[in-house]
Amino acid sequence: KQWYQRRVAITAGQMGKNVLKIGYGKGVMSHRIWVGGLGSWTKASELEKEFDRFGKITKLDFNEGDYHAYVMFESLDAASSALSGMKGYPLGGPDHRITVDFADPGSPEHSNSRRKYDSEPMRSDTECSEEGAKRKSSVSKSSPKKRSASKSKNQKVESLSELCNRYPIAWKGSIVLKTNAFSVKLYLVGGDPAVAEKLLVNSSIGSIIRVTQRLKLEKQKLDQLNQKLVSAGVSGHCILVAMTSTQTSELPEDIQHRPLKHLLQYFIQKQAAGISTLEANDLQGVLHTFPPCDFSQSKLLKAAPSLNPEPSKEDYLVMILVKE
């Protein structure tokens, strides 16, 4: 997740009139693998069975129903083989292909591990390589410097900002509604990271997302969106949380920056969500921007079950990006 934060931090910037974009370098190898693209169909026993083929697993960190898991191997060779062998693997059928990458051995875990393996403990931060330690401390300057890894595994996350500290920043820029702009950081908390990467980072939107339509918060409309999410599957959508950012984007002279709470108040007053269309090459998606409400809270809790069930009093938006 840290490599994703770095890439977005740089990509979101500009050099003159040019939008900066970067490619991927070689990640730091680790005994620990992050597995994304999971869902309600994924069982811990199935994960164990598929990854155990590559070598001895010392720890499997997964809450059934979550969108991701962590697999710790005894050897680096086993982890490397699993990374190569499981990229794009259809775990749960051809429509449910997973994403894998090396994970920081000291990064936060799920609030409740359903399965654990009794063996030697995980490496501490001081045992990580110097390069890995540098990577851990060099997250983009807009990201919080302190992580919530010290929290008890069984402790609920009390604030939304505390939760967001555990997830990567998928995009930074401004949401523009009419002549008003709201600077935000979008945290990827659920779904497929590739959807955010293709339609946010690699799209033509640069650092501006324009809200062009409204979606009424009516049962019929929300049921239709739920059907789209079911049809798209985990690999066809992602869940993001928008929080206030101090970084502002270059905007036309007729557009003014406003606090994020003004956008929340607008959507709540209109009893609606915002709609934005995103395009990248031949790919198209629809971004739904929700104020705090029963519907958005249910999606947020599904993506992040460790969150306090009561809606946060912070200024935030829940955004659902669906690939068309």
pLDDT averaged residue by residue = 77
Instruction: Report, as a whole number of angstroms, the end-to-end distance.
Output: 25 Å
How much helix, percentage-wise, in residues? 25-40%
Largest sheet: 9 strands, mixed
| Net shape | elongated
Strand content: 25-35%
Unreliable segments (pLDDT under 50, ≥5 consecutive)?
110-155
Number of strands: 16
Q: How are helices and strands ordered from N to C?
A: HEEEHEEHEEHHEEHEEHEEHEEHE
Output the structural class: alpha+beta
The number of distinct helices, counting runs of at least 4 residues, comes to 9
The Rg value, from CA coordinates, equals: 20 Å
Q: What do these coordinates show?
A:
- The protein is elongated, with a radius of gyration of 20 Å.
- The protein has 324 residues and is of the alpha+beta class.
- Helices cover 27% and strands 27% of the residues.
- A hairpin with a 2-residue loop joins strand 14 and strand 15.
- It has helices at residues 2-11, 44-51, 76-86, 130-137, 160-164, 193-201, 219-232, 260-270, 294-303; strands at 14-15, 18-19, 32-36, 57-61, 68-73, 99-102, 115-116, 169-177, 180-191, 208-210, 213-216, 237-244, 256-257, 272-280, 283-290, 316-323.
- The relative contact order is 0.14.
- It starts with a helix and ends with a strand.
